[in-house]
Amino acid sequence: MASEALSIIPGAVLRNLSDKLYEKRKNAALEIEGIVKQLATAGEHEKISAVITMLTSDFTFSPQANHRKGGLIGLAAVTVGLTTEAAQHLEQIVPPVLNSFLDQDSRVRYYACEALYNIAKVVRGDFIIYFNKIFDALCKLSADSDANVQSAAHLLDRLVKDIVTESDQFSIEEFIPLLRERMNVLNPYVRQFLVGWITVLDSVPDIDMLGFLPDFLDGLFNMLSDSSHEIRQQADAALSEFLQEIKNSPNVDYGRMAEILVRRAGSSDEFTRLTSITWINEFVKLGGEQLVPYYADILGAILPCISDQEEKIRVVARETNEELRAIKADPTEGFDIEAIVSIAKRELNSEHEATRIEALHWFSTLLCRYRAEFLAYLNDIFDPLLNALSDTSDAVVLLVLEVHAFIAGEPHHFHHLVSYLIQTFHNNHVLLEKRGALIVRRLCVLLGAEKVYREFSTILESEDDLDFASTMVQALNLILLTSTELAELRCLLKKSLVDSCGKNLFESLYASWCHSPMATISLCLLAQAYNHAICVIQSLGEEDINVKFLVQLDKLIRLLETPVFAYLRLQLLEPGKHTWLLKTLYGLLMLLPQQSASFKILRTRLKTVPFGENLKRTYSANPYSQILQVTEDGNRIQDTPNYSAINFQSRLHQFESMQQQHRDHLKIQLQSRKSASAELSQVEFRLHAYI
Questions:
Q1: 507 by DSSP, 3-state: which?
Q2: Which phi and psi angles does 376 have, rounded to 5°?
Q3: Whole-angstrom distance, CA of residue 161 vs CA of residue 134
Q4: Are 138 and 193 in contact (CB under 8 A)?
Q5: Tens digits of residue pLDDT in 155-205
Q6: 140: number of CA atoms within 13 Å, CB side?
Q7: What is the pLDDT of residue 688?
Q8: Which of 21, 55, 134, 304 fits a disulfide with 74 by CB distance 3.0 to 4.6 angstroms?
C-alpha cells in the first residue's frame, strides 16, 4: 500500500513535505490536497486510504521531527481535499493527530493543534464521535509548557465548543465522568479550561448540566480558593448561574449537593465558606422534604459559621439557622432527632459563645416539639448540660437553665439538677460567689422560687460538709433577701405566723438555714418571728461569734436599711406592739463591735424609735411564755382559724443541735491542725539535729 501511495504522490512532493522550511511543507500539502480532490471525485477511496496510511506510518510516526510535522499538515490537507466525504476516513486521520499531542517536540504539538483545527473545520458534526479523546488532549494541552502550543490549543478549543453546541450527537452522559475525573486538578490553566467547558455546556438549552451538577459541584467549590483571582471569579460566576437555575427548576437533587455543601462550609477559605453557606441557605428555603434526612448535617455546618470571623458569613448562617429551626419536620418522615441532638451536644463544647447559645436554642426547640423523643436521649446529654452551668458566659448559663427548666418537669430530673448544682458549687466556690446568684435567681423564675428553695433546703439539710453547707445557706439567704425575683417568696414568709403555707415554707427553710446563725436570724426577721429571733441570738456561744459571723451580721444590718425590710422599720413606730423586735435589734447591736460602721448604723436607727408611749408588754425572761405573734397590721394569730402555730421550742432545739454539730466539727478541725503542726515541728527538730 505504501508503494501504491508513492505512485500516487510524486516523490518531489513527499520530499518537500518533510522539508525543514514551512513554506515547502505547506506547498506540498496543497498539492496533496489537489490530488486527493481528484481521487475523491473519481471515487478512488482505496487510493486515498493508501495515501493516509503512508502519511501516518512514514511521516507522523517518523523519528524525524520535520517528517512528523509534514505528516500532520498532510493529513489535514487530505481532509480538506475530501471535503464532504472526509467522515468515512476519520478513523485513519484523527488517531495519529491525537497521538501527536503527546510529542516531545513543542512544534510538533503545535502543528498537531493546527492540523486538528483544519480537520474539525471540514467535518464539523462528524467530529463528535472523537470528542472525549479530543477533550482529554485539549485538557492536557491547556497546561502545555509552550505558550504557542497553548494559544493553538485555545483556538482549537473554541472551534470544538462551537461544534459541540450546534451538534445533536453530543453525549453529556459520556462526558460527565471525564469532567468529574479532572475537577480536582490544581493546575490553573486546566481549571480555566474546565470552567470554560462547564459554562459553555450549561448555556446549551438541550444539555441538562444541572442534572449532573452533583458530579462536579465539589470541584467548582474547590476552585473558589484558587490563588488566581480570575479562576475564583470564573468559578463563582458558574456557581451563581447554577444557583439561579436551581431556584427556577422544579426537579433538583438537593441531597447529594447538600453533602458537598456541608463539607465545604468548613473550609479554611473564607470565600468558599460564604458561598457554601449561601447555597445552604437557599437549599433550606427550597429543598423541603428532600432535605429532611440532611438536617443534622446542615445544622452541623451552620452552627460553627454562626461564630465566623467574617460578618457576612455570620449573618447568612444565623438566617439559615432560623429558617431550619422554623421547619416543623416529622420524625416519621426521616427527621433524625438523635442526630440533631448529637450535633447540638457537640457544638455545646464550641469555643465560641454564639455557637453554644444556638446549640442550646436547638435543645429548647426539640424539647418543645418532640419532648418524648428528646427525653429518650437525655442520658447522653444531661451531664454535658449540667457541665454547661459552669460556662464562662452568663448568656449561655441562662439558656442552659431554661433547657433544664424544660427537662425538670419530671421530679427526679429536678432533684438531679439541684443536687448537681450544689455539688458544683461545693467543688467551685468561685462559681458560687460569681454566678451563684444568677443561677439561683433564674431557676426561681423558670421553676418557681418556692419549689427551688424547698429543694435546696432539703438537700442542704443533710449535707456532710458543714462548712460548705453554711456558706451555701448564707448565699441562698442573701439571694432571698435581695432579689426582686423572690419578692413573692418573701411575702409568703412574712405570713408564716398566720398562714399555713407560709408556716410550711418557714419550717422547710429553717431546717437547713440552721447551718448559719445569721441566716436563721434573717429568716426569723423576714417571717416576723421576733420572739424566736432573740432566742436564737441568746443561744449563741462564744465560739459562734467569730469573724465570719460578724461579716454576715454586718451584711444583715445594712440590709435592714433596704426596702425589703421597710415593714420592719415601720413596726418600730409602735414599740409596744413589737417588743420582741426591739429586743432582737438590741441583741444584734450588743454583738457588734462599737467602732464598726454597722454598729453606728443600727444604733442610729434605734435612736429614732419613739419610746414615749407605755409599752404594752414587758420583756420576759422566757419569750415563749408570752408569744406575741402578729402580722404587719398587728392582728394576732389567734384570729386565724385552722392554723397550727409553729413549734418554736422544737425549732430552737433543732437550731442548737445543728450549731453543736458545727462546734464539734470546728474542734476536730483545730485538733487536726494542731496535730499536723506538731508533726511538722518534730520533723524540723529531727532535721536540725541531723544537720
A1: helix
A2: -65, -25
A3: 11
A4: yes
A5: 999 999 999 998 888 899 999 999 999 998 999 999 999 999 999 999 998
A6: 13
A7: 59
A8: 55
